[in-house]
Amino acid sequence: MERAKTLRKAQTDAERKLWSRLRANQLGAKFRRQYPLDGYIADFVSVEHRLIVELDGSQHFDQHAYDVKRNQALEALGFRVLRFWNNDALEKTGDVLNAIVAALTDAPPPHPNPLPRLRRGRGSQAVPDSSARRASDESPLRPTASSLGGEGWERGRSAQIASLPANGSRSSEVRDSWSALHLRARLYTLIRAFFAERHVLEVETPMLSEAGNTEPNIESFSTMFSGHADAGARERWLRTSPEFPLKRLLAAGVGDCYELGRVFRNGEAGQRHNPEFTMLEWYRVGIDHRRLMTEASDLVHAALALVGRSAHVVERTYREWFTAELGIDPFCASIEALQAPLAEFRIDAQSLSRDDWLDLLITHHLQPALSRDHVTLIHDFPATQCALAKIRDGDPPVAERFELYLGPYELANGYHELTDAAEQRARFERDNARRRARGQRELPVDERLLAALQDMPPCAGVALGIDRLLMCLAGSDDIREMIAFPFANA
């Protein structure tokens, strides 16, 4: 152990190079460096994915027996161990990273410590790890007959549609997976009927845009247009949400509208995330976030009825949620007070902001405690988490936004929409400043949106993750079970 500590005190060139690619969630997972585990110090650890990455130098040529013993001890803790030579990390970095990404894509073993949610943008995909639930029979993510999918949902399938052989033949196991497609189709039919009854217009907007999403915690895909230069900007960004073009339609006078379509987020793939997923986003003119929150709850209740379920509604302010469950006032508690309930999780505090600690309290304590039979509505967030929402003056000021949870799943994120173009530009600029500080690329802002905001009517908007809702309806804890062809097989 002492020898291992000595070897790990100085960071090697290989460790330095690999850490530059693993840190800050660049592969879609949080890694910790020099992480203590049962008497060992592991080079790089993703606790969420139960994955250890070790780099070996020449000293390992004569300590094979020690390495075998070390691997066995770490695997006994429920971790998978990948080992690479230092030279490979330096000279074949791409191959090493590909191997790590492949391991991250595999379903991780259970673990009680989910990572903080890092995305507060519209329709974020952050889904709490199913293993983060307290040991309770109420967990909606357990593979039991009482899951939200009801008795008809097929659990324990050994094959997915993604397993189709190259020749397209279908085994009986694969045919069992049609249930997810049928459930999705029924949900789409319900959604369209729900909005037709309310005279909300379905629209389509572009998936490619000249502007990117400046939110630092969301990474966009980009592509290059190869046609004539007069056609427009060559670099285009795949949308992470239809929000900006929908607001331009609102400014043009389209009225209440919604879009049900595909969106894209880079750097996220596996059991909890898919780089392309389905988002429902809608806007209602002349109402605030509180009224839209009720409508979003109505839609979720209608979806639950598809599988013979219902849920109680619990509504709280952000402050009430924290004070009632943790005895902490999130608006004025010290950083030390926010950190104290998280001490057991041994979280790396480096570079974490106050909002990060608040999010950690949600993912580690508040979300796991939510009952599976409740729709929980949380509204009026700290002003520092305003995103694209209005800020209401008060003591303290609050962001007029809400989140909707079904059980411990965050399904929807809604705002009383900001219509001040100058303030919106300032927020975009703050986003890019944070990107600059993190060493990320600054992204072009949507000038067409900014020009349209002055004409956008007062309204509220919300985005809801369809794949997450389907997971709840089906009682599944794997997003890949809800998708015909997940990322690895697309």
What is the percent of helical residues?
Answer: 25-40%
**How much is the average pLDDT?**
83
Helix count from the secondary structure assignment = 15
Distance between the termini: 44 Å
- Overall geometry: globular
Q: Characterize the largest beta sheet: strand count, sense, and whether it forms a barrel.
A: 9 strands, mixed
Give the structural class: alpha+beta
Structure description:
It contains 15 helices and 16 strands. It is globular and about 70 Å long. The longest helix is centred in the middle third of the chain and has 20 residues, at 178-197. The chain is 33% helix and 19% strand. By secondary structure, the protein is an alpha+beta fold. Keywords: ATP-binding, Ligase, Nucleotide-binding. Residues 181-486 form the Aminoacyl-transfer RNA synthetases class-II family profile domain.
Offer a few descriptive terms.
490 residues, alpha+beta, nine-stranded mixed beta sheet, four-stranded mixed beta sheet, 15 helices, 16 strands, 33% helix, globular, disordered N terminus, ATP-binding, aa-tRNA-synth_II/BPL/LPL, Aminoacyl-transfer RNA synthetases class-II family profile domain-containing protein
Compose a concise summary of this entry.
This protein is an alpha+beta fold and 490 residues long. 33% of the residues lie in helices and 19% in strands. Strands 5, 9, 10, 11, 12, 13, 14, 15 and 16 form a nine-stranded mixed β-sheet that branches.
